[in-house]
Structures are given as C-alpha cells and as structure tokens.
C-alpha cells in the first residue's frame, strides 16, 4: 500500500500532488478492521461518561488514522506491518548531519500533505466535550495538531507537535510553515518523487535525491533545527510529565482513545490512574497494554463511536 506524491519547483513556485493523499477514499486505508458497533457497549460507554465529572482523555494515533494519517502499530495497516522502515532515533538525528539532511528532505516533501490533514468526528466530539464542560483535560500522544485544529484548548501534546521547529542550540522556536519557505528558497531547482507516508509526515526518498538537498540552520544562532517532537529514544520533558500526573490525580476517570499504550511515556499515566483507583475505559481497535486495568474495553472506530455519546 503506497501513496505517491511529487514535489518540484516550477517557474519559481513549488507544486505538489500531495492533495491526492487527502482524498476521501484514502482516509480508511490506515484504519484496521473492527467489528460492528455493539449497542450494549455503546450504552456502557455512555454510562461511563455520564458518571464522569472530571474526565481525563488520553488519545493516540488511532484517533488520527481516520483523518488519513497512518500509525506505526495497527495490525495489517500500520507502518511496521506495511514496510521495513522504522522511525528516526533521537540520538542519530542529534549526532549526524547526514541523518538530519535525509530527515528534512523527506519531511519537506511530505509536509504539504501532512499539514493539510483535518480533524475527523472523533476530534470534533472531544472538542465538544470540552466546550460543554465534560472533558477536564486532554493528553495526546499525537504530533499532528488535529486536536488544536478542532478547537481543543485544555490540551497537553505529550510528544510535541510537528507544526513547530526548535533550534537544538538556542531553543528558538519557529513555525514549521515558515521553515517550508526557507527550504524552498535554498532548493529552487530540487525535485523529488516519494511513495508512502509515515505518522510524523515523513516520506521515502532515494539517497540520490537526498544528497543534493540543502538544509537551513537556525536564523538566530546558526544551530541545527529539529521538529518540536519527542523522537524515539528521547524522553518527555520532566515538567510536562509532572503536569500530566497532576491532571490525572485531579481527574475522577480516564478514557483512553485510539492508543495501544505500548510506550511507557503514556503507560505511566495509566498506572497513576490505577493507583488512584480511577475507573478506566479504553476505546481502541485491537489489544492494548492496559486492557487488564480497564473496567470497559471497546474495539470500534473512534470517529464512529464518540459522536454517539452525549456528554451532558
């Protein structure tokens, strides 16, 4: 399963076929199969939400697959199942200029399509829950800004956001869209064709395409630039972790949405909820690391089920 896209300069302006990756027909490509909705399970989740007064929701990649963004672990459709590619490691990115060049070349090609993705009914439902006072806090492992696009404000982006870029030396923050313009100025004749799309906006290019790509440095100090996200092998900021632990302890229930909770950066909050004896519900297609801790487990599409729940 591949989605092709091309990015090339044409008479001083950049053109792309990236919009093809956002067509309605592609949105289901990355969502694993799930059983039909069970009306009794829907009622159970409704009761869970009705009884919750300070609900904390933790979301993962399974929320965004219905917006056309692939995940890593979903059976049959995740990146691990479809390719032998693996996400970039923090240490490799920080220590190697060629690794950064390869990353940014691929990210440059993938960015127009990645940035164009829009919230799906699951994002809008959670935003509505917040607006109505049901959702106390939202913690997302996703880096796609779709919760923000849907209007969520009581939000912690646990692993950061691809829409921001940081300098590794001085910490200067830049909007990713601004950096795209700098890439275009440095590479006016560069073109590439890629296939596939990774969860963080990465695509797959040949080494020949990568070698001629020019990468800008920090406009403030000349240091190397990195997306404001937690790469694999890195750790989440301690202050952010402490903040989320506090939100969990203030909550009276926890709902996991679209996450297998395989990484410890999210699993530790489930353990905190268990220690506090909070009721835990999980909505995710397929098993999760925390199923044995949940009082309710649902295997359904997030965007299909969440809009059916009345948060009042």
From TrEMBL:
Keyword vocabulary terms for this entry: Metal-binding, Mitochondrion, NAD, Transferase, Transit peptide, Zinc
Entry cofactors: Zn(2+)
Enzyme class, spelled out: transferase
Record: active site: 159 (proton acceptor)
Sequence positions that bind NAD(+): 60-80, 141-144, 258-260, 284-286, 302
Any one GO BP annotation for this protein: negative regulation of insulin secretion
EC assignment: 2.3.1.-, 2.4.2.-, 2.3.1.286
Annotated signal sequence range: none
Catalytic activity: N(6)-[(R)-lipoyl]-L-lysyl-[protein] + NAD(+) + H2O = 2''-O-lipoyl-ADP-D-ribose + nicotinamide + L-lysyl-[protein]; L-cysteinyl-[protein] + NAD(+) = S-(ADP-D-ribosyl)-L-cysteinyl-[protein] + nicotinamide + H(+); N(6)-biotinyl-L-lysyl-[protein] + NAD(+) + H2O = 2''-O-biotinyl-ADP-D-ribose + nicotinamide + L-lysyl-[protein]; N(6)-acetyl-L-lysyl-[protein] + NAD(+) + H2O = 2''-O-acetyl-ADP-D-ribose + nicotinamide + L-lysyl-[protein]
Record's keyword annotation contains Transit peptide: yes
GO molecular function, one term: NAD+-protein-cysteine ADP-ribosyltransferase activity
Name under which the protein is recorded: NAD-dependent protein lipoamidase sirtuin-4, mitochondrial
């Amino acid at each position: 399963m591949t989605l092709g896209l091309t990015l090339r300069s044409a008479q001083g302006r950049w053109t792309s076929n990236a919009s093809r990756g956002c067509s309605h027909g592609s949105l289901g490509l990355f969502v694993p199969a799930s059983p039909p909705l069970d009306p009794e399970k829907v009622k159970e989740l409704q009761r869970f939400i009705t009884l919750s007064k300070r609900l904390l929701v933790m979301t993962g990649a399974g929320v965004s697959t219905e917006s056309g963004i692939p995940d890593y672990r979903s059976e049959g459709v995740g990146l691990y199942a479809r390719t032998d590619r693996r996400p970039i490691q923090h240490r490799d990115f920080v220590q190697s200029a060629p690794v950064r060049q390869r990353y940014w070349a691929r990210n440059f090609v993938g960015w127009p399509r990645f940035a164009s993705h829009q919230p799906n009914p699951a994002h809008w439902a959670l935003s509505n829950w917040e607006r109505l006072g049901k959702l106390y806090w939202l913690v997302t492992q996703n880096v796609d800004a779709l919760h923000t696009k849907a209007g969520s404000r009581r939000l912690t982006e646990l692993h950061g956001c691809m829409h921001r870029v940081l300098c590794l030396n001085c910490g200067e923050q830049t909007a990713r869209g601004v950096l795209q313009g700098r890439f275009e100025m440095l590479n006016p004749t560069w073109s590439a064709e890629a296939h596939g799309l990774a969860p963080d906006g990465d695509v797959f290019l040949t080494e020949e395409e990568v070698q001629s790509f020019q990468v800008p440095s920090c406009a403030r100090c000349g240091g190397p630039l990195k997306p404001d996200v937690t790469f694999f092998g890195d750790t989440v900021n301690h202050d952010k972790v402490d903040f989320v632990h506090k939100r969990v302890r203030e909550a009276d229930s926890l709902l996991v949405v679209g996450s297998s909770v395989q990484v410890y950066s999210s699993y530790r909050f489930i353990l905190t909820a268990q220690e506090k004896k909070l009721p835990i519900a999980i909505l995710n297609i397929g098993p999760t690391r925390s199923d044995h801790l949940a009082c309710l487990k649902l295997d359904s599409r997030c965007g299909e089920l969440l809009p059916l729940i009345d948060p009042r």
